[in-house]
Input
Amino acid sequence: MPREVDERKKRAALRKLRRAAALAEQGLGPPLTDWETAFLEEVENRIEKYGSAFADPMKGAEGEALSGLQQLKLKQIDKKARGKEPKGFKAKKPMGQQRQAPPRAREDVIETPPPPEPPKPAKTRPALVPAAGLAGTGNVTALRRAKPRLTVIQGGAKKTEN
Output
């Protein structure tokens, strides 16, 4: 079911779509992906058939032929087809932080190279000691020298018979 769209806006949207497709065919920029080509064709078919490329009125203005996101994507495809470099996201500085100039080097100060680092000592492995030699050392207590044993303590939970 067609929407009420201004004919001038409909023609303008179709003109933009066709111009972007024609520029992409000229090969000024990188080739369009399959998805971008399908997007241009599908949006053009929807505008011709329904007068608008979107149905949800929350996605765009009442009399527009393209939604806000469709207009944005069409603009990106158009820039790509023209061979212009797309702008990326820039990191924003926190509020209140002053822009700092990079430190400038003084011409009158001669920089000396840092001294060379001393060579690192070679890694050595500790000598292995037999386990029998550990038992007779003075830092092991008599309790640790004795064999462990299990002691069972009588008692615990009492069983009741019903």
Notes: The CA atoms of residues 46 and 80 lie 23 Å apart. The longest helix spans residues 7-26.
